[in-house]
Specification:
Number of strands: 11
Radius of gyration: 21 Å
Structural class: alpha/beta
Bound molecules: glutamine
Oligomer: single chain
Strand order of the largest sheet: 1-3-2-4-6-5-10-11-9-7-8
Distance between the termini: 25 Å
Strand content: 5-15%
Shape: globular
Length: 485
């Protein structure tokens, strides 16, 4: 039997009802059956079955992820498999080291199933900018799974992994979770080491869990969080303990802020209704719901895209056709080598962002764009500080619509950027947020909500989400999967 959550697998393993090998084989069989349809993975770990058998012989059965298969996003460095960021420029690239989170997963007893598809270099909201082709939404193959961690989310939704790692620079964990009916956490900046995460926007990027439940997210986040001397932006003395947060569903005394201007124009009516119903559910659990306004959100998308593209243009300068991956066969001289490698190696969206970022950082425009964006970022931070002085969490939509249809987004990149309105301010400010399912559209697509918390208040978010999931069953619904023809 294939168990659906990490918590179930651990329990069954501890009771001697299953083994790591049996679970891993069940998930590999599911991948073999469905990945041809959904394309969640770029690479399958050929050693997974063997590693699981080895774990059954001599692994630490007490480990927090003992025998649990996990999928990881293809921007996390692994020695044993290619790390490509779904880009042509990194096809076949093998990292000489494992990311810190990968080492931590293995130390906790997890079995890595493979590397999941994503938007190229995590730039996008649909997983359609991948060099290896789009991932399909398990709820409806005519729709995108969201992005950029769309492969990780679709893998969990399609039962091709019980648990996955994604990364979130401006919503890339939370938005695919909303589109695929899953739960995911974007941790506080500095809570999880970024060592071995191929950088997009270094001041925004965080690695986090994607799962069916808040409980599973907590399990995985507890394993990957913590100080790492290899990442100078990781925070000392971070130690989450979610046990208490998961036990007590009593929300009396908790204050949840509901920013009314988040529910205005541009938000799909079905999503608005689902968010308001969730607010009522929180009130029924004892929380106090407080309406207020967050006017600065209007400036979050422009500030985010200036900062993210500026950082990306610098981070991606390392891909020069020499050090990593793709190396063109024909070129005239050194400059032509750079030019050819980058022209042929990067996709359109990545090029657009490198150009935007280079422009924003150029000497004539630095003050007008980059410097201005940093000021806006500071103002948004102040607005959140004020909110968290009054509320324990903020309730918000994740995206203005449900999952868009395939091939409907890339022709109008500005409209796609605007759909990040509810997610990007969280990254600008560095706070944590949890995304979880709260309904379905009439067309049968999942609807998500998110709860935002103060810095390092992940335990509060898990407590609120777990309490909600004890009373509701949105997170238990499963899509009807299609087999390959
Ligand atoms: N959609 C956003 C972007 O394209 C967020 C991506 C992310 O979080 N990696 O930048």
């Amino acid at each position: 039997m294939q168990y659906e959550t990490a918590a179930q697998i651990r329990q069954a393993l501890a009771a001697g009802q299953t083994t790591a090998a049996r679970q891993t084989e069940a998930y590999l069989a599911q991948i073999a059956k469905y990945d041809g349809v959904y394309h969640c993975y770029n690479t399958i770990n050929e050693q997974a079955a063997e590693q699981a058998a080895e774990f059954d012989k001599q692994g630490d059965k007490e480990g927090p992820l003992a025998g649990v298969p996990v999928a990881i996003k293809d921007n996390l460095a692994t020695e044993a498999m290619p790390t490509t960021c779904s880009s042509k420029i990194l096809q076949g690239f093998i990292s000489p080291y494992d990311a810190t989170v990968v080492q931590k997963l293995q130390a906790a007893g997890a079995i890595i199933l493979g590397k999941t598809n994503m938007d190229e270099f995590a730039m996008g909201s649909t997983t359609e900018t991948s060099y290896t082709g789009a991932t399909k939404n398990p709820w409806d193959t005519g729709h995108v799974p969201g992005g950029s961690s769309g492969g990780s989310a679709a893998a969990v939704a399609a039962g091709e992994a019980p648990l996955a790692l994604g990364s979130d620079t401006g919503g890339s964990i939370r938005q695919p979770c909303a589109y695929c009916g899953l739960t995911g956490i974007k941790p506080t900046y500095g809570a999880v080491s970024r060592y071995g995460l191929l950088a997009y926007g270094s001041s925004l990027d965080q690695i986090g869990p994607i799962a069916h439940t808040a409980e599973d997210c907590a399990l995985l986040l507890q394993v990957i969080a913590g100080y790492d001397e290899k990442d100078s932006t990781s925070k000392k003395d971070v130690q989450f303990d979610f046990a208490a947060a998961l036990q007590n569903a009593d929300l009396r005394g908790k204050k949840i802020g509901l920013p009314l201007n988040y529910l205005g124009d541009g938000l799909d009516a079905e999503i608005k209704a689902a968010i308001l119903a969730a607010a009522e559910q929180f009130a029924a659990l004892g929380a106090e719901l407080c309406e207020f306004e967050m006017p600065m959100i209007e400036y979050a998308v422009p500030a985010y895209y200036i900062i993210a593209c500026a950082e990306a243009s610098s981070n991606l300068s390392r891909y020069d056709g020499i050090k990593y991956g793709y190396h063109p066969e024909r070129f005239a001289d050194l400059e032509d080598l750079y030019l050819t490698a980058r022209s042929e190696g990067f996709g359109l969206e990545v090029k657009r962002r490198i150009m935007l970022g280079t422009f924003a950082l150029s000497s004539g425009y630095y003050d007008a764009y980059y410097q201005k964006a940093l000021k806006v970022r500071a103002l948004i931070s102040r607005e959140f500080d004020k909110a968290f002085a009054q509320y324990d969490a903020i309730l918000s939509p994740v995206a203005p619509t449900c999952a868009p249809a395939l091939n409907a987004s890339l022709d109008d990149p500005l409209a796609m950027y605007l759909s990040d309105i509810y997610t990007v301010s969280v990254n600008l400010v560095g706070i944590p947020a949890i995304s979880l399912p709260c309904g379905f559209s009439a067309a049968g697509l999942p609807i998500g909500m998110q709860l935002l918390g103060a810095h390092f208040d992940e335990e509060m978010l898990v407590k609120l989400a777990a309490a909600y999931q004890q009373k509701t069953d949105w997170h238990l619904k499963k899509p009807q999967l299609k087999e390959a023809e």
